[in-house]
Amino acid sequence: MSSQGHTWARQVKKEGEEEDPLDLLISRSGCAASHYAVQECMAQHQDWRQCQPQVQAFKDCMSEQQARRREELQRRKEQDSTHS
């Protein structure tokens, strides 16, 4: 049995094309390098199981970013409640 695997490749933005919202989110998170490492590994190996270190690094980066975002939102909420 032959498996085709994934055909993951990094997309190149064309002239006049809008930026993908997911790409914007990842870029703003500070985790773009980890994300691209996962994509490159997937393109090379065509098997997510061989890319677990890259997947874990991306997951860790996004988790840290989400924790920072939660802390920032909590601080803003506390500041807003003290100024009301």
TrEMBL record:
<dbReference type="GO" id="GO:0033617">
    <property type="term" value="P:mitochondrial respiratory chain complex IV assembly"/>
</dbReference>
<protein>
    <recommendedName>
        <fullName>Cytochrome c oxidase assembly factor 4 homolog</fullName>
    </recommendedName>
</protein>
<feature type="region of interest" description="Disordered">
    <location>
        <begin position="1"/>
        <end position="21"/>
    </location>
</feature>
<dbReference type="GO" id="GO:0005758">
    <property type="term" value="C:mitochondrial intermembrane space"/>
</dbReference>
<dbReference type="InterPro" id="IPR039870">
    <property type="entry name" value="Coa4-like"/>
</dbReference>
